[in-house]
Automatic annotation (TrEMBL):
SUPFAM superfamilies to which the protein is assigned, alphabetical: GAF domain-like
IclR-ED domain span: 1-137
Signal peptide segment: none
Superkingdom, natural source: Bacteria
InterPro entries registered for this protein in UniProt: GAF-like_dom_sf, HTH_MetabolicPath_Reg, Tscrpt_reg_IclR_C
Protein name: IclR-ED domain-containing protein
Source organism phylogeny: Bacteria, Bacillati, Actinomycetota, Actinomycetes, Propionibacteriales
Length: 139
């Protein structure tokens, strides 16, 4: 796990590297869950450990975010864990194409404007694809 802080003067330290959330709660876990098999998704959503994070994490809402994630390639968490703290995640894949992790960005809400999200998403996806390739090359 690695954390790199950008140069923007405001920091979002409400989430930290290594913090664990049920799949489908934070952006990284949503990115991973979106590319799991339908059976694995059903099993994850059958557990109730994510509902402690609020109604936005009920199965119906998570499934909608999973569909959006598959459509655009990256996950967005618009302040669903801590208001004002947003995140984006992109899955990292193994040689079989299964998700094994994710890269994520977190920050304050106004750094994730609708106009900026596509560029951030492309950059995040590019880094995740590069890491996936490097991991495949080492095996």
């Amino acid at each position: 796990m690695v954390r790199e802080d950008g140069s923007f003067p405001l920091r979002s330290h409400v989430l930290h590297e290594g913090r664990r959330f049920p799949l489908g709660v934070a952006s990284a876990g949503t990115a991973i869950l979106a590319y799991m098999s339908p059976q694995e998704i059903d099993a994850c959503l059958a557990r109730s450990d994510r509902v402690q994070y609020g109604a936005a994490h009920e199965a119906t809402q998570v499934r909608a975010r999973l569909a959006t994630t598959r459509d655009v390639g990256w996950a967005l968490n618009p302040g669903l864990i801590v208001e004002g703290s947003w995140g984006m995640g992109a899955a990292v894949f193994d040689e079989q194409g299964s998700p094994i992790g994710a890269l994520s960005l977190t920050g304050v809400e106004h750094r994730f404007t609708a106009a900026r999200q596509p560029d951030l998403g492309r950059r995040l996806l590019s880094a995740a694809h590069e890491l996936s390739g490097r991991l495949r090359a080492t095996r």
